[in-house]
């Protein structure tokens, strides 16, 4: 069975369609979808509908879905801050059926395919603790490579060099049972396997918002498990027209209702690196400086902070 592993779509319908078309052209027969379908790009409802219609798909929820869950039954007249505009917009623009579907998804799935155990969760925390996040979270990767893009080969060499020399990872990975462990969350595409090939970690990266400082394409991973138990893994990057997509973002109602968020996301898409973490740090410093204690941040503080932060970057 050949699976397309896709994670962190984040409302990017153009990228999702492009990845699915590429996977189908490569003869994929099944899908493993690893969570986070909304809160970034402006087409979450279309993305959810698309994945719901996939055949032979194993689908879990991610961490972003809880932001929508937390809004159920809340007084919408109180939704006047700037910081949470993206959550409010998504909640109001995802159909009730699709929201129910998302929130009913499992958080973890365990399978056996051709006698190979496959474990699926949104975050690597479930399998290797903080080993990935501590040194290869998106914000750390952005600081590591500064403003430069990195090649796929160099990135693979760098992360493998880290893992091969990390005692904590060696201990945690050594204690894992044989099988394939699939996760997403960090928006960083990578894989790692034991020398005997019986333990494999796979992060397909973010289909909708890659943050691994690699310039080319939107990532996903193909996992091929043969009837004989042989395992093949291929990391794919699918090209998309980002400038055309930015036009679609700017024409969306999300751009109108959550303007600052959209601008930050467009920076991330353009540079393939984390910006949101650094912007949130800037907002907190700015709010503290002006004595604004409102949290979530007011519209005025949120928008002024973005103006100052953006000017500083440029």
Main beta sheet: strand number and arrangement? 5 strands, mixed
- CATH superfamily of the largest domain, by name, is Metallo-dependent phosphatases
* H and E order: EHEHEHHHEEHHHHHEEEEEHHHHH
Structural class: alpha/beta
Estimate nothing, just give the exact number of structural domains.
2
Spatial arrangement of strands, main beta sheet:
3-2-1-9-10
State the share of residues found in helices, binned by percent. Answer: 40-55%
CATH class (first level) name of the largest domain: Alpha Beta
CATH topology (level 3) name of the largest domain: Purple Acid Phosphatase, chain A, domain 2
Contiguous low-pLDDT stretches (5 residues minimum) are none
What is this entry, summarized?
With 314 residues, the protein is α/β, with parallel strands linked by helices.
Describe the structure using short key phrases.
18% strand; 5-stranded mixed sheet; 314 residues
Please characterize this protein's 3D structure.
The protein is of the alpha/beta class and 314 residues long. It has 15 helices and 10 strands. The protein has 2 domains: 2-238, Purple Acid Phosphatase, chain A, domain 2 (4-Layer Sandwich), CATH 3.60.21.10; 275-313, no CATH class. It is 45% helix and 18% strand. The longest helix is centred in the C-terminal third of the chain and has 15 residues, at 276-290. The chain starts with a strand and ends with a helix. The mean pLDDT is 97.
